[in-house]
Amino acid sequence: MALGATMHTFDVQLADVDRGVYDELSLRVARHPSETDAFMVTRLLAYCLEHQEGIAFSEGLSQTDEPAVVVRDLTGALVAWIEVGAPDAERLHFGSKAAERVAVYTHRDPEKVLAQWAGKRIHRSEHLVLRNFDAGFVDGAVAALARRNAMTLSVTEGQLYLDLNGTSLTSGLHEHRME
User: Fold this and answer.
1) 8 A C-beta contact, residue 91 and residue 117
2) In the chain, how long is the greatest CA-to-CA distance?
3) What is the pLDDT of residues 33-57, one digit of tens each?
4) In whole angstroms, what is the distance from residue 59 CA to residue 110 CA?
5) 156 φ/ψ angles, rounded to the nearest 5 degrees
6) Residue bearing the bigger pLDDT, 150 or 62
7) Quick one: which of 10, 61, 147, 152 could link to 27 by a disulfide (CB 3.0–4.6 Å)?
8) What is the CATH number of domain 6-177?
9) CB 78 within 8 A of CB 72
10) Rounded distance, CA 175 to CA 144, Å?
11) What does the domain layout of the chain look like in residue ranges?
């Protein structure tokens, strides 16, 4: 019998001063058995850092033609394609053709992620943004993770301040672009 997804709930207080986004979110995040906690936390952070009207988690691993997080406008058209981890260049090429904007959030070494895309064909690659966090930030969040979570995320001048279940962490939000 196949294992099902593990559900995590997050009550999030979001204050993104850099973008002028302030909101209270109640999120249910399903972690597929093949997904690591670090990937799920990065997916959650991507959702919060990209939060805007029309944002949603995709159907996940069962929906291979969608990224981890999508943003759609009121007509249902795809506005933003937001990947997590280290997606391949072909997937980013497809996403860049399908959406106005493509972003990738990674918990991995950004230089290695960029290297795997080097020389590959990616539509509008000059607009693709890769974001990562300080070393140990995602691992610290994973260590504080529970099934039910209270989370406060503040973003000021590119600096993240995260409180997850009483554990406080800080990180820069680093942005990389393809050459």
Assistant:
1) no
2) 48
3) 889 999 999 999 999 999 999 999 9
4) 26
5) -140, 125
6) 150
7) 10
8) 3.10.640.10
9) yes
10) 25
11) 6-177
